TrEMBL record:
The gene is LOC108559693. SMART domains: Tryp_SPc. Residues 78-335 form the Peptidase S1 domain. It comes from the Eukaryota. InterPro entries: Peptidase_S1_PA, Peptidase_S1_PA_chymotrypsin, Peptidase_S1A, Trypsin_dom, TRYPSIN_HIS. The lineage of its organism: Eukaryota, Metazoa, Ecdysozoa, Arthropoda, Hexapoda. This is Venom protease-like. Gene3D superfamilies: Trypsin-like serine proteases. It comes from Nicrophorus vespilloides.
Length: 340
């Protein structure tokens, strides 16, 4: 008997049953892949899970979010056996812990006192490869050296991050094996500003650590970009302790070139986003992923490369590396997932 039929049978047999919201089905928690994964990998707040119950009290049934057929069988989106560009936490306008699980923090260690700082952001391509900007991977500061990647973090001021429904696992701090910088990178022009950080050991996928999808052959028709990172936005006096989500319009290159063209060339290797008054990334977002949602999946279309001193000024967007132009280079230099 399929699960939908089971749901209908239980509903008919038990009057006054508590029903589920639209796009979810009443079923045993062991048959719900999203909730089962959270229970397996995370520290769940029990009273929140119990509030998802359906059927009679004590029935053991929960409201499980529906997974579309396309999502459940799309093998083209599998990375190391995991679907890319999908959050296990579903909900309209939800942007809390686990909503954007592909963003990671890049750490630099002070060789004198051992302090680790995280000034840049990257994104998970697979269990061994993190995508970021070349200027982050090659960053140099007095006594600080590129050291590790922090994976699965949401809040920077707690050891265990908790949302309303569940708590995440402790962060994964994984040291770096080596860095692959695009051979055409030009620091002064931010040209080919892209790099891969290869981890010394593979990360573990959890609800708060998932791979992002690379863009495909389609054109960007959705101009609603999403930037994920831990920096300071135009509306803030200092960086937030929580992972930040900025919704930024993607701007056409001609408008962007009018802003930067005299000092830094804007080409098809770039994507521009922002330009709304008081709404842009200002500092600490270097290397952060710019996303668009295409169908049921999130894709990374940009890496934050540089911005203007006039952060958050009307008509002044920030500039990103256009991932679509580098997909082949990323695949050629990420044999861990593409050649196995």
């Amino acid at each position: 008997m399929n699960l939908l039929a089971h749901h209908k049978r239980v509903s008919r047999a038990l009057p006054n049953t508590k029903f589920c919201p639209e796009n979810s089905y009443c079923m045993p928690i062991s048959s719900c892949p999203i909730l089962k994964e959270i229970i397996k990998n995370e520290c769940v707040i029990s009273n929140r899970v119990s509030s998802l119950g359906c059927g009679y009290q004590g029935s053991g049934l929960v409201c499980c979010p529906q997974i579309s057929e396309a999502t459940s069988v799309n093998h083209d989106k599998l990375v190391d056996g995991q679907l890319c560009g999908q959050s296990a936490i579903q909900g309209q306008d939800y942007d809390g812990i686990g909503a954007y699980p592909w963003a990671v923090r890049i750490g630099f260690k002070n060789v004198i006192n051992g302090e680790v700082k995280y000034p840049c952001t990257g994104s998970i391509i697979n269990k061994r490869v993190i995508l970021t900007a070349a200027h982050c991977a090659l960053a140099k500061a007095d006594n600080y050296k590129l050291y590790n990647v922090r994976i699965g973090e949401y809040s920077t001021d707690t050891d265990i991050d908790c949302g309303e429904e569940f708590c995440g696992l402790p962060v994964q701090d994984i040291q770096i094996s080596h860095v692959v910088v695009h051979p055409g990178y030009e620091k002064r022009k931010y040209k080919n500003n892209i790099a891969l950080i290869v981890l010394r050991s593979p990360l573990n996928y959890t609800v708060t650590a998932q791979p992002i999808c690379l863009p495909e052959s389609w054109s960007i028709t959705n101009n609603n970009g999403i930037l994920v990172g831990w920096g300071k936005s135009a509306s803030q006096s200092e960086a937030s302790v929580h992972q930040q989500i900025l919704h930024l319009p993607i701007v056409n290159l001609k408008k962007c070139s009018n802003v930067y063209g005299n000092t830094l060339p804007i080409t098809e290797q770039n994507v521009c986003a922002g330009g709304e008054k008081g709404n842009d990334a200002c500092s600490g977002f270097g290397g952060a992923p710019l996303l668009v949602q295409h169908g049921a999946y999130y894709y990374q279309v940009g890496i934050l490369s540089f911005g203007s001193d006039q952060c958050g000024a009307q008509g002044v967007p920030s500039v990103y590396t256009n991932i679509k132009k580098y997909v082949n280079w990323i695949k050629e230099n990420s044999p861990v997932i593409y050649n196995n």
